[in-house]
Design a protein that fits this description.
The protein is mainly α. It has one domain. It is built from nine helices and five strands. A three-stranded mixed sheet has the order 1-3-2, covered by helices on one side. Strands 4-5 form a two-stranded antiparallel sheet. Strand 4 and strand 5 form a beta hairpin. Helix 6 packs antiparallel against helix 7, helix 6 crosses helix 9 and helix 7 packs across helix 8. The chain starts with 11 loop residues before the first strand and ends in a 12-residue tail after the last helix. The N terminus is likely disordered.
């Protein structure tokens, strides 16, 4: 089976080029990392309480084509839509594995803002994973779980009764489930943009990143550096770099700080991975010419095992009900 088409990265920080005197871009090209699908379930982004630190005005979150025009010299964090998430996993691995998802029974036992925000990202990832693999019973369970945590985080308007009724009516239609999941993503994203709640967003994205890596690596069998799934795991070096950078803006927040520290350690493991650069010149989906570098990550079996062990250790710690032993997986 041929691998599915490639897609943009999970979270990328893009610095736009300042326009020249005539209003056109300067001759210095925008350096851009053109990376295939990051295979990360980008969390439906939450917003938190009134006391949260706001994201600096000079940096924004955007959805869609990273080459779209943007006011210079802003820095943008690009986030793709959920329909980019598990396509390659489904295409190569076939069936979903509900035992790999975080049990919904744990949701009531996340009592802190940090625990709820991180696991909101985890459960949103699991919801999209379930919809992509047509795990219909789990779709309902995880939707209700996401809604419950979303309400606790101030996200009630993103998940309403009409959406749930529509979800139930379309359980037998896999494509419709994916569409509904994407629409929920946009609603939550819009609310996030309105509120600009940085610390909670950082934790939600961290939860989505960790759970996505966990789910993707669960589908990797024997290590093969040329295998599409292994390549996508390797390429998350870049998304993790930018996620850590984003979290660092809120590193003094008491909820963000411990998770940020663990993500930095994980990034340090990726820093040992060799990267090769090659010149790239091509057109974006919008037809605009893009100049920059293609980056190829060369991951060894030992490095893969080390990264996977670190991801699993971090996930086990942070998805466990607070103050409790690690939760039992789904049957």
């Amino acid at each position: 089976m041929s691998p599915p088409a490639e897609h943009p990265s999970f979270v990328r920080r893009i610095k736009s080029v300042a326009p020249g005197p005539s209003g056109a871009s300067s001759l210095r090209p925008m350096v851009q990392r053109t990376i295939p699908l990051s295979l990360l379930a980008l969390a439906l982004c939450a917003c938190g309480g009134a006391g949260e630190e706001r994201k600096p005005d000079a940096e924004k979150l955007v959805i869609g084509d990273s080459t779209a025009a943007a006011p210079a010299p802003e820095a943008l964090y690009q986030m793709p839509t959920p329909n980019e998430l598990f396509a390659i996993v489904r295409g190569l691995a076939g069936e979903g594995r509900k035992r790999a998802m975080n049990p919904t029974t744990s949701a009531d036992r996340y009592a802190t803002l940090g625990g709820r925000a991180f696991n909101f990202g985890v459960y949103c990832t699991d919801l999209i994973y379930a919809s992509y693999f047509h795990l219909n019973v789990e779709v309902v369970r995880y939707y209700l779980t996401v809604k419950k945590l979303g309400d606790q985080l101030g996200m009630g308007t993103a998940f309403n009764e009409q959406d749930f009724v529509r979800l139930e009516r379309n359980l037998s239609k896999g494509d419709s489930l994916e569409i509904i999941s994407n629409e929920a993503y946009y609603k939550a994203y819009e609310r996030l943009q309105q509120e600009e709640m940085g610390p909670t967003l950082a934790l939600v994205l961290a939860g989505g990143w960790v759970e996505s890596m966990h789910l993707v690596m669960d589908h990797v069998g024997t290590f093969d550096p040329a295998a599409p799934l292994v390549k996508r795991v390797a390429e998350q070096k870049f998304s993790l770099e930018h996620l850590v950078e984003m979290m660092g803006v809120y590193g003094s927040d008491p909820n963000v700080a411990p998770v940020h520290e663990r993500m930095v350690r994980l990034r340090d493991l990726y820093d040992r991975v060799q990267v090769q650069r090659s010149a790239h010149a091509g057109k974006s989906a919008s037809g605009r010419m893009v100049l920059g570098d293609d980056l190829h990550v060369q991951l060894t079996a030992a490095q893969y095992d080390e990264i996977r062990a670190a991801v699993e250790a971090l996930r086990t710690e942070l998805v466990s009900p607070e103050g409790q032993v690690p939760a039992k997986p789904n049957a």
